[in-house]
Sequence to fold (446 residues):
Amino acid sequence: MAKKLTGLDIYKLLPRTNCGDCGFSTCMAFAMQVAAKKVALDQCPHASAEAKAALGEAQAPPMRTVQIGAGEKAWTVGGETVLFRHEEKFHRPCAIAVEIPDSLPAQEIAQRAQALTNMRFVRIGQELRVNLLAVVHTGGDLPQAVRVIREHSDLPLLVSCEHPDLAAKALEAARNDRPLLYPATAENYEAMAKLAQEFPCVLGVRAPGAEALATLTPKIRELGVEDLVLDPGMDGFLSTFAELVRLRRLALKKVFRPVGYPTMVFVHGSNPFDLAAQATAYICKYASVVVLPQSQPELVLPLLTVRQNIYTDPQVPLAIEAKVYEVGQPGPDSPVLVTTNFALTFFTVEGEVERSKVPAYIAVVDTGGLGVLNAYADDRLTAEVIVKTLRSYGIMDHVNHKKLIIPGLVAVLKGEIEEESGWEVIVGPEDAAGIPAFLKNEWRAS
Fold:
């Protein structure tokens, strides 16, 4: 067994110029990440052939990082380093894909492709959307379906067809788009691997369980195809879920290279509630591509929300820039509301102010990304901080009144703020849902 190289060993093989081209400030920092198997050596564009030969596969991350698609909407999956989110974080959000059967009429295929491409949601300031279109061969004209989709969407494709000859024609219609071609099986993997190299594309590999996948992936790699996504190919939700967890453990804990790839799964069923439950479980543990048979917004949005929550860093609060935000077109008689820079708090408050139809200023205090109560408990939201922040913004000089609305959860700060600033402090509702009625009734009445 080869000697495991330490961070210092790896550092000695690097250029040691601290150029930063790898994304790290120093070569030593990069070397430590390579030693921990969190990044690959090829992330350093200046690594010598000697270094690559010395390190080989031994220092590569346990799970390969794979890019599906080309251009701005390409989606990268894999490269994960932990089993549990609290250990560090999950790095690359799983792709949400929706099936489009090739047996549908061309007009309906075009409508679905366009509708899915235009389906966007904004939550806490981030745009959420479907990431892949899965064109599935169900007896129709697959190449024509791909051409129609390409005319109406620029989202990356998943091409699902077990027949290499037909798949080749479909890939010709999506040449240079780097789609995900699926499935490569024990029966057709040689022909599918040839297609993956010719076009080129990512190859989805399907086999019943970890052992079968571990037998198949080395054969495909010997044919020159490195970018793989694994489908455990199990029947039923529970067995699929269990195999996804097993594959993740084998890849990360055992560093078992034959299964060190991102995974994919098709969600089966017709009941939207069942589909949502299955897909949620797969997103959490541990699918890198989740393919849905339906595309209703009421199904897709909850899953995108789950993914957004799972793939945030649990150790770093999601924060926005602390400044004054304008809702509507506020003027000198508009209210001034105070809140924190925790993203969920701010966007909830902003949404309720918009719903009130009362133009307003929202003065955001930098609390390190903490919500109102946590910031107050941590002494990051105090009367002194609020007054100092608002004076630095100069917001009270832009309104005719000297009235400030603070969250009801920190009503205790009212007296201190008034004494510190000389402003009149109005205690707002404790819950953001009460803001519209408060602004319409209490503010206008004042």
